[in-house]
């Protein structure tokens, strides 16, 4: 029943129901009430004598409620708290940040700090005080093995004050007047079964234990793990934050049960693999990056990166994944990579310790990220954006199934066919493999359930809503005096080439007269195609227009020329300057230089360009743009 009295000292929180003694007794007898002993707090009323235990009990009540709320959002790191190596090989640095332990305690570091691992006395005392170790650890100078770096919430008393007697015969005394909260850094030994193997192999094996088998070692609920480290006689061998670090947000953002790993674990596997792979690439930089994943890892996340060198651009074989894995190579717009990775996290990791039979149903797609504006150009050279990769792993004959071996006895032996690297399709794929500046590609695990949409027909370019934009283009070309040259281009172009030409020149960036003149000039210089019919002569095809479109495809194109025009109007008003700039066929490079040059150097560069352009020195101007373009790269 609700208490009808309002404003009295015995009122409870408005959202709770106050029950009387009779109802409470009945509920106790029926077993329909649950009492939480942690949530007892003093009931204050006028005339009550307060003792220290009453106020302490109230503090404990609110601490318990706060811990319950802390657990509601999940345990892990909220932000910061990244661990890296300190100034020496025996120290670590922990960035400031905030986290929540599994017990709901809030861990806050308001500043970054460097911890010297040789400070054994303090760490041993904390270990013993928290019950992590029953016996003192070995000397820090000889400490070896795997350890979890963890943060714990602690408290201590301080600031002594006078305590007055509580009886007539009592004496005054001194007691600490404050409880101070803090955060302690401690090392928790991680006991694994690979003490006799090297640290790098142990790292790969433990990653498989944690992310594939979901093994957990006894980390206290009151500790927040932020990194795993390997110590060899007190010296750091490696630091791996994401082996034990978990982000607090994704802990509950998971899919429907059914045995799926929590999202925080899946994300941590991706981050851990990325950091480990970066170290492997750095170590193997001189030896070469063509290696099998099983050389350094025992498991892989369902999505991540891999070296492009793992794919041979001559015969298009791959060595990174086991031979039993079905691997395809695909060209994908770079802005779609995050979405594909997000989808891959719903699939299980790839266990590299499994045999061929277990991996036979595993499918992986290797992704080459390309700029979206290059998709149309490549579509003209490739019939498909996906191709199968064969495995270059040795021992494939030994792994052949008995039935396959018997069938091979009755089949005629075929002569090995070596792919021609100069073929158009292979050359395009090879160039795409070498395109990423960092030499890294992406992969995602694919579902076994495939859906393929087949269609038969031919591409037809429809003209409808674009008529308005085409008319605006014609008006603009007439305004800048390029009508005759544009008409000549369209008359000698195929229908698809003309459509691509209109699509290119209709974009907003070509409001710049110099850009329009430069694009028209490059279209005019396209190599004529061979005439094979008696139809009216066609000299420009779609492929050529797409190559020009690729040069003018940068999203920032036009910004540099706009800055030059603001410096001197002759860049857009002087016919000779505009035509000389276009004659270099380096207008996109000129625009890029102007965008990247510091403001202090841009004026000098603009004056030099105008000096050559105004006098028609096309060769000198081309040399200047080429040299400056290399300089700003």
Explain what this protein looks like in three dimensions.
The structure is a single chain. The chain is α+β, with helices and mostly antiparallel strands and 633 residues long. The protein has four domains: 21-71, no CATH class; 73-254, no CATH class; 284-398 and 420-446, no CATH class; 468-632, no CATH class. It contains 21 helices and 18 strands. The strands form five sheets. The chain has a six-stranded mixed sheet with strand order 12-18-16-14-17-13. A hairpin with a 5-residue loop joins strand 2 (83-85) and strand 3. Helix 13 (495-505) runs parallel beside helix 15 and helix 14 crosses helix 18. The protein is elongated, with a radius of gyration of 35 Å. The termini are far apart.
Task: Tell me briefly what this model is.
With 633 residues, this protein is α+β, with helices and mostly antiparallel strands.
Uncertain runs with pLDDT below 50, 5 residues or more? 1-9, 120-125, 451-456
Shape: elongated
The biggest beta sheet is recorded as:
6 strands, mixed
**What is the helix tally?**
21
Q: Assembly type of the shown chains?
A: single chain
**Main sheet: which strands, in order across?**
12-18-16-14-17-13
Residues in β-strands, percent: 15-25%
Mean pLDDT: 80
Structural class: alpha+beta
């Amino acid at each position: 029943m609700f208490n009808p009295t309002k404003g009295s000292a015995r009122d409870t929180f408005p959202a709770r129901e106050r029950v009387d003694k009779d109802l409470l007794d009945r509920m106790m007898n029926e077993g329909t009430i649950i009492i939480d002993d942690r949530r007892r707090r003093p009931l204050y009323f006028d005339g009550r004598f307060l003792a220290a235990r009453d106020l302490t009990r109230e503090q404990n009540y609110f601490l318990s409620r706060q811990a319950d709320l802390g657990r509601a959002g999940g345990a892990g790191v909220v932000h910061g708290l990244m661990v890296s190596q300190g100034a020496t090989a025996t120290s670590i640095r922990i960035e400031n940040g905030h986290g929540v332990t599994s017990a709901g305690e809030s861990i806050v570091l308001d500043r970054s700090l460097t911890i010297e691992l040789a400070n054994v006395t303090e760490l041993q005392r904390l270990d013993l005080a928290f019950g992590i170790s029953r016996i003192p650890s070995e000397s820090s100078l000889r400490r070896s093995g795997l350890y979890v770096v963890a943060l714990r919430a602690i408290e201590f008393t301080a600031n002594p004050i006078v305590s007055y007697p509580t009886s007539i015969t009592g004496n005054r005394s001194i007691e600490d007047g404050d409880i101070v909260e803090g955060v302690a850094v401690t090392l928790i030994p991680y006991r694994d079964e690979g003490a006799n193997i090297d640290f790098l192999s142990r790292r790969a094996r433990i990653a498989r234990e944690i992310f594939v088998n979901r093994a957990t070692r006894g980390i206290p609920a009151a500790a927040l793990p932020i990194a795993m480290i390997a110590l060899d006689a007190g010296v750091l061998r490696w630091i791996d934050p994401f082996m034990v670090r978990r982000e607090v947000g994704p802990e509950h953002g998971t899919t429907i049960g059914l045995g799926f790993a929590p999202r925080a674990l899946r994300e941590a596997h991706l981050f851990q693999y990325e950091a480990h792979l970066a170290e492997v690439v750095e170590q193997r930089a001189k030896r070469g990056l063509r290696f099998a994943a099983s050389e350094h890892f025992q498991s892989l996340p369902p999505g991540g990166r891999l070296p492009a060198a793992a794919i041979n651009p001559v015969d298009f074989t791959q060595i990174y994944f086991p031979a039993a894995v079905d691997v395809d190579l695909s060209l994908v717009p770079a802005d779609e990579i995050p979405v594909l990775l997000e989808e891959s996290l719903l699939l299980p990791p790839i266990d590299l310790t499994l045999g061929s039979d277990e991996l036979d149903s595993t499918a992986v797609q290797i992704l080459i990220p390309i700029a979206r504006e290059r998709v149309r150009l490549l579509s003209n050279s490739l019939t498909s954006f996906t191709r199968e990769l064969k495995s270059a792993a040795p021992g494939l004959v030994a792994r052949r199934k008995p039935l396959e071996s018997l069938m091979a006895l009755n089949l005629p032996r075929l002569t090995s066919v070596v792919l021609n690297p100069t073929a158009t399709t292979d050359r395009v794929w090879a160039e795409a493999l070498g395109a990423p500046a960092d030499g890294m590609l992406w992969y995602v695990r694919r579902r076994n359930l495939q859906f393929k949409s087949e269609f038969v027909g031919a591409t037809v370019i429809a003209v409808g809503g674009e008529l308005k934009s085409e008319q605006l283009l014609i008006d603009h070309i007439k305004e800048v005096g390029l009508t005759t040259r544009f008409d000549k281009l369209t008359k000698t172009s195929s229908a698809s080439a003309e459509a691509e030409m209109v699509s290119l020149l209709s974009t907003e960036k070509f409001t710049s007269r110099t850009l329009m003149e430069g694009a028209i000039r490059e279209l005019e210089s396209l190599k004529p195609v061979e005439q094979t019919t008696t139809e009216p002569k066609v000299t420009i095809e779609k492929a050529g227009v797409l190559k020009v479109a690729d040069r003018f495809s940068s999203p920032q194109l036009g910004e540099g020329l706009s800055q030059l025009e603001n410096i001197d109007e002759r860049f857009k008003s002087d016919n000779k300057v505009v035509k000389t700039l276009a004659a270099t066929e380096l207008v996109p490079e000129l625009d890029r230089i102007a965008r990247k040059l510091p403001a202090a150097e841009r004026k000098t560069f603009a004056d030099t360009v105008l000096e050559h352009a105004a006098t028609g020195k096309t060769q000198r101007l081309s040399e200047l743009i080429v040299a400056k373009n290399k300089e700003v790269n």
